[in-house]
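Why should sequence recovery work at all? Because a backbone constrains its sequence more than one might expect. Tight turns favour small or flexible residues, buried strands favour hydrophobic ones, and helices have their own preferences. The token representation captures these environments compactly. In the example below, the structure is given first.
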């Protein structure tokens, strides 16, 4: 049995190294997944106040015109930043700090501790073009941060699922390789890079992997693995899913452009033996959590 388990672990790691993604089936605890799905309807949808969103700002719900489908995803709802969203924070924390998740991640890279940098709670289907997540979070050197994509409902092939282009772990395509010069503002560099990368990758007419998913499943891809949103039928449509950007804590980190020699920060909340939450400087200042500022102890301890 021990030998078989070791073999299985290597299997996932090898697959991840070779293809830059891995699909795990029925690995996550069901209670917090079910709780989040229920809270989306019972707590988030009826709420009319501003909440932290993917734009980085506090916003009220923005609906697809003529529908009750919310298109501005909740950002970082795992942090203690909203009294109204406290039940969501607790359910997210139960899921993200679970021993089940730690065990699965360890199969991929053997790390003992992970730092969660960002969560996005999707309430309706996404529409991303081919891109990499390295610009949001990456390790230094590139390629060892992970994106988790967690369905909070069962989804079939018409659900607007992510599609992943198999990609060797750690393979970085530089701006220079795409014929791009770095002399423009970072915000423009992002869009320009992703568009050029998409042109290059799609020109090879690559196989693109997708899978129907059920609650409890988990898709993981690396910070350098190209992926996109496949179409949904109908569009728009409700879609409950959670996306998490995290890294093994012991690795240096930055982003695609920022590859620092070190990254000292005390802006994190140690949640368990296996997980910490990173807190951005503006969030730390605004909500007085996890900072060098005199802050009250986090309600989560
Ligand atoms: O949910 C999806 O279709 C993918 C979203 C995505 O890749 C992102 O937000 O970075
Ligand atoms: Fe992405």
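From this structural description, the recovered sequence reads:
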């Amino acid at each position: 049995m021990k030998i078989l388990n070791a073999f299985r672990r290597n299997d996932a790691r090898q697959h991840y190294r070779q293809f830059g993604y891995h699909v795990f089936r029925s690995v996550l605890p069901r209670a917090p997944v079910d709780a989040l799905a229920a809270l989306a309807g019972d707590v988030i949808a009826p709420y009319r106040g501003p909440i932290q969103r993917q734009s980085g700002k506090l916003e009220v719900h923005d609906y697809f015109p003529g529908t009750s489908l919310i298109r501005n995803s909740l950002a970082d709802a795992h942090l203690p930043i909203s009294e109204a969203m406290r039940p969501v924070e607790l359910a997210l924390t139960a899921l993200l700090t679970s021993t089940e998740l730690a065990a699965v991640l360890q199969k991929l890279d053997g790390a003992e501790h992970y730092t969660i940098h960002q969560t996005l709670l999707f309430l309706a289907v996404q529409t991303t073009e081919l891109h990499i997540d390295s610009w949001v979070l990456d390790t230094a050197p590139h390629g060892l941060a992970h994106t988790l994509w967690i369905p909070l409902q069962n989804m079939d092939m018409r659900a607007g699922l992510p599609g992943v282009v198999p990609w060797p772990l750690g393979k970085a395509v530089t701006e220079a390789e795409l014929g791009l010069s770095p002399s423009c503002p970072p915000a423009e560099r992002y869009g320009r890079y992703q568009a050029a990368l998409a042109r290059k990758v799609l020109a090879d007419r690559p196989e693109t992997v997708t899978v129907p998913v059920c609650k409890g499943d988990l898709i993981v891809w690396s910070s350098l693995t190209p992926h996109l949103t496949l179409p949904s039928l109908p569009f728009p449509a409700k879609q409950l899913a959670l996306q998490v950007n995290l890294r093994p804590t012991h690795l240096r980190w930055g982003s695609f452009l920022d590859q620092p020699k070190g990254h000292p920060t005390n802006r994190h909340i140690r949640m368990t033996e296996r997980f910490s939450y990173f807190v951005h400087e503006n969030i730390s200042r605004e909500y007085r959590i996890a900072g060098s500022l005199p802050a009250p102890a986090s309600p989560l301890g």
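A few observations help interpret the result. Confidence is low (pLDDT under 50) at residues 293-297.
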